[in-house]
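Here we describe the complex-level prediction in full. Unlike the single-chain runs in Section 2.1, the two entities below were treated as one system.
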Amino acid sequence: MSELLTGAAGERRLFLGNEAIVRGALEAGVALVTTYPGTPASEIGDRCYEISRQTGLRFEYSTNEKVALEVAAGAAACGWRVLCAMKHVGLNVAADALMTLAYVGVKGGMVIVSADDPSLFSSQNEQDNRYYARLAGLPMLEPATPEEAKAMTRAAFALSENLKLPVLLRTTTRVNHTRGPVTLGELAARPGPGRFYKDPFRQVMVPAVARQAHVRLLAAQDQARALAETSVFNEISGRGAWGIVTSGVAGAYVADALTELGLADKVRLLKLGFTHPLPEALLGDFLAPLSKVLVVEELEPYLEEGLKAVAQARGLPVTIRGKGPDLFSRLYEYHPGLVREVVARFFGVSSEAPDPLVPEQILGQPLPDRPPNLCAGCPHRAMYYAVKIALKDLGVEGVFPTDIGCYTLGLLPPLSMADFLICMGSSISTAAGISRATGQKVVAFIGDSTFFHSGLPALVNAVHHKHDFLLVILDNGTTAMTGHQPHPGVSLMPPGYPGEHVPIARVVKALGVEKLWVVNPFKYKESLAAAKEALEASGIRVLISQAPCVLYEARITGKKRKARFQVSRGCGECRDCLDNFGCPAMYLESGEKGRLQIDPDLCSGCAFCVQWCDHIRPVGAG
Amino acid sequence: MASTENRKPKTENPPKNLRIFLTGVGGQGTLLASRLLGEAALAAGYNPMVSETHGMAQRGGIVVSTVVLGDLQSPLISPGEADIVLGFEALEAFRALDRCHARSLVIANTATLAPYPVAIGQARYPSVAQMFHRLAEQVGALLAFDADALAHRSGSPLAVNMVILGALAATEYLPISAQDILSVIRTRTKEKFLASNLQAFELGAAAARDPRNWQRR
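The structure predicted for the assembly as a whole is:
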């Protein structure tokens, strides 16, 4: 049984922030959870999937975040408590639904988790989704720790039902992926079936209805602001003529800095957890007696702008600073030493941190990087190689719009097969634009999960407008990058997975694509021939590269490799494998004339390289 | 840089605040090690904060995690502020020197995993002896040994994390006992790996008791 379902009230557990959110939702009696996986939110869905297999919790990995939000909104309209989790950029996909869902409102409590990623550990941008709360007019809570993540999730359901609005729970990577002590509460029972009560003149957003709904939304915001004024999540501590205002994990860095700098009795601290609408009276009362205030928040000056507006409205002479040269950056996540240094500088106290050691300087030579790489035995690499060689044989340069997933690592040498990327699904539509504008040979790459997420409209568009490029769908049968979540095209079903299989080839044909190749990328001759044919054809062409993710296959089937391979003596200087393929199991022996070798511990036994290099042989074959 | 106080670890008064930085390569089990340390600390009455790297970094890249104990709320460890560094791989242990201060304890695996640029001859892996020589000059103490070999000897080549935890538990830097950690390992390990994990933990502890593995300033 999932450990999130065990434990008595009052017991303390070490939970990941994401697990704490799930536990909080279970304690609030959540009935349905929807998500599309994305770091740093993925574990929320994964734990809920596991729990849905063991209890009556309804859960789905939806095809994308917009779908996830709308499924959740439908259920919330029927009185169920629902949780919808996504990474920050997922909320862009769901934004169309979000903005008007704020007008429609909810009956059952609805919590939307937006997991932001300052420092871009696994993302294409580091947008600050607190502005979505302001844009949509929705209440927002911002936890700083796993303990708060659980408490706020629980409270958010009640808040949502009170205001009849979805509540945004805005986290950052450092909250989602921190483990900390969490005190358990009672698990709540899940409700029975909900019921949809017709009320079209409040729930069908035609202009006449929406005009009234907007009035209600503004009134609800006033009500939300009043609740924020007295929320337990907005805490004031300390004393003195100086102030600090903070939110999220930055609050932890501030707390440690104040202790370490001995400023605890000189600085009044306002730690905000209910951050939209901002509690203007509370902020004004906090600012009024202070001479200078530092705002410590990661990414954008969201609180800083709010505080300055309050000070201006109240005519307060207090100095308010946050972002700026010598102060805090709008870039990347903060850390304790950085916050301590800026706090010390701002208030004019000394911080005495010695300069950190620089390993390269101490060694007197650069340290090699350790870039991530596609795994040994990865089917993406095999397909990339076939396309690469096909282009070389045809003497054509390819332009490669790519997409989001493990295969984005095709960017790195020696593959170097990623040229343009914006967001999920952009490979197909940008390929259309690039090929139309240039007439160059364009090959777009997209993964299977991403194809279902947002590739379908782009492909229909390409068919309809007779665009001219090759789309390679790298179908490894799972959402590999985020931890092997299933999707509609999942080829190896996880045991007990209830989803219906929707084969990609069937979808592609149904969308009107007539030139379609399906290959197993590990069959080199076939995939090379198919790649050449597809490259030479014109119009919209699709090549589906179908072979399971090597890690996923091993996990699901328990399949062990059958053979391993070695390099025979005749291997000379061609280096084709290193220059074009780049399997991490291959390495050069050290020394001037080091020979190429295959690491027997890393070789997956995929038997791909053996098909195009005469010097690679199965172990035992001599 | 040279500090004369604290030439030896303080054994009688474990520090109130303790920041432990774990670093290694995807697949080496750093995340499990930090989680086990956190669980053991929680059971011993601490308020641990553990931060982890997930996602893209795990495809053969560097994986770091932190365990912070004591009267601290921050889960992260800034440059120059790790009291203990657990380096699961030689180069990564050295790279984490930027986290160290003059009294830090570094426990490092001397075994290497070549980064891809090194494997294909585009970059050179620095000499392990030289890296550890330099490292030992900068920190309070360095405990270095071949944790891969000990994991192999335990019967579970993947148990490098257990070896390192065993070594850490055998030093006197931790405010929690080896028994605290062992009881968490027992509850978190699958039956079939338990014997080898315990063996790996014990081999790590033995390595920490061997004065030849230590360099102290």
